[in-house]
Amino acid sequence: MDLELKNKVALVTGAGRGVGRGICLRLAAEGAKVVVNDLHDRRAERVAVEIREAGGTALPVAANICDLAQVRAMVVQAAETLGPIDILVNNAGIPGTLPGEEAPKGGWEDFHTTDPASWNRMIDLNIYGTMNCTHSVLPGMVERRWGKVISVMSEAGRLGEAKLAAYSAAKAGMLGFSKAVAREVGKHCINVNVVALGAVDSKEMPFEQLEPHVQERMGKLFKSYPIGKGLQRLSRASDVADAIAFLASDRAQYITGQVLGLSGGFAMPG
Fold first, then answer.
1. Which helix (H) or strand (E) element contains residue 216?
2. DSSP structure class, residue 266
3. pLDDT at 97 over 60
4. H or E segment at 222?
5. Amino acid 139: pLDDT
6. Is-catalytic flag, 167?
7. Going from the N-terminus, what domains does the chain have, and what CATH number goes with each?
């Protein structure tokens, strides 16, 4: 199926590895010109090289999306090099560290014992990062009366995850924000949607090739994912990338303000 994304310009945040990398490769394979954003320039450049070697077009941009000025500059650079942004994928969601910084504290800890300072980074990246990028690209989309904004959240944002309270809150905020913006910009033919992820297997190794202790741990995880149990695998970057490519196309023209669960049935909200 031709998704008709040829020459569309897509900006993907947090794109230097894992799910972000997979999204970039999939959009590029559909003919989109991809702005590969990452906090680290080397990671962004590696993915851009992969795209170019496969015959695609890519622009690597190292920028901290928590900094609105850096986001504005990235959008201007993209427009001058590839053209205005048609598709925004808000994928960045796990706080990274800049050279010389200490790794952020927090995560997998009871909320009442967390350091309040650890909340800021999670909220800044998932809420303000998403808002910064969306605010920077929407005016052009409104002017052209075409655009797709897709944000990547976690099922923790819909169900809540023990020991990840700040993360769950941040991801839930992405969903509420996206629904509100979808109501605002639908009249301009702009679609705003969200995909919700469960556990993602970044290495994508066949189950039978895993170490026995890893097979045991993965087997327990599979039981939480109806499809995962049947397939003996967790979701992969390619699963996420395929869904996002669809939502980025006009095949999904009449879908907006929705959240698509990509967790093998782990979450089935009514």
1. helix 212-222
2. S
3. no
4. helix 212-222
5. 98
6. yes
7. 9-200+237-262 (3.40.50.720), 202-234 (no CATH)
